């Protein structure tokens, strides 16, 4: 079986360094809010190109804290609207609704699979206060038009950078293109921990201080609570592991780009559609999505021939039961078509040439 992603092999790639880092933390006797967090936050902020990085428990919390901080600082208020791509993972939507904000779904561009910037302005109302830009699949979703719209309408631009660690736009890393960005370090991400983890990056010190407090029970000083916060902290072991893997991130991404290039150059089945190819600097290939009208049949065929694939994502947010009261009856044809046709192929920094060849051969024979 060719696995979709072997986390065991990914971890083993830098196993000696990871084991040494974990052992160092275990032997230190200090497991929360210590030197490992300080080091990783400093290194990740430097890598992304921002002044501040705040580690937290997971990627969803990272996004939640950004919008909660906007509200606490009087920059937004419950009921305000946030424009977000309709074809994102549900975490992007949950971060908005968790804060009493209204998510306004905008269709993606069917060729890039990212938020369609030509559809954004029509969705802006007097209550619109933010755009949550999602770099889905590891593809850079930022455009100059989106930046211009945020300036013209005075909208807070926030990045969901959960799938795009190391991606760039005109020499700047995603995660530094907006006022703030949420990052996920879920194990399967390009920069993945050995458990859950997340972070916020920003240049805004006031926002950073508020987010750090919110993620630590609302405390700005020990036993002094300025906000009603929660416990959402990145532990020392995960910080140490992430600091090791951060040193290898660019090389790991380069290896993913080599797999993607092989796919683009060799997949030629007319039943399969590939998204628009981006320059390598604009895509770190967290996932490699393809589209096929006979998606389920193709997935079963690949499984029967020893290739594991996944679907991202089979049910879009507006059709999920938890949002039935919010968007019941809404029709988003592009998003719904993508949900019925998208299939993600195996891709990782540990994929063997023979595995790449087998995937392509089977796809072309389908």
How would you describe the overall organization of this protein?
- With 366 residues, this protein is of the alpha/beta class.
- Helix content is 39%, strand content 15%.
- The chain contains 13 helices and 13 strands.
- The protein has helices at residues 7-13, 15-28, 35-48, 59-72, 90-97, 144-153, 205-214, 236-246, 249-266, 295-304, 324-327, 333-341, 353-365; strands at 52-56, 81-85, 102-106, 128-134, 156-160, 168-169, 172-173, 180-184, 198-202, 219-221, 224-225, 288-291, 342-345.
- The strands form 4 sheets. The chain has a 7-stranded mixed beta sheet with strand order 1-9-8-5-4-2-3, with helices on both faces.
- Helix 5 (90-97) links the parallel strand 2 (81-85) and strand 3.
- The protein starts with 6 loop residues before the first helix and ends with a helix.
- The mean pLDDT is 98.
Name some characteristics of this structure:
366 residues, alpha/beta, seven-stranded mixed sheet, 13 helices, 13 strands, globular
Q: Helix and strand succession?
A: HHHEHEHEEHEEEEEHEEHHEHHHEH
Strand order of the largest sheet: 1-9-8-5-4-2-3
Average pLDDT for all residues: 98
Low-confidence stretches: none
Termini gap: 18 Å
What is the helix fraction of residues, given as a range? 25-40%
Major sheet size, sense and barrel closure:
7 strands, mixed
If you compute it from the alpha carbons, what radius of gyration comes out, rounded to the nearest whole angstrom?
A: 20 Å
Tertiary shape: globular
Q: Which strand-content bin applies to the residues?
A: 5-15%
Total of helices: 13
How many individual β-strands? Answer: 13
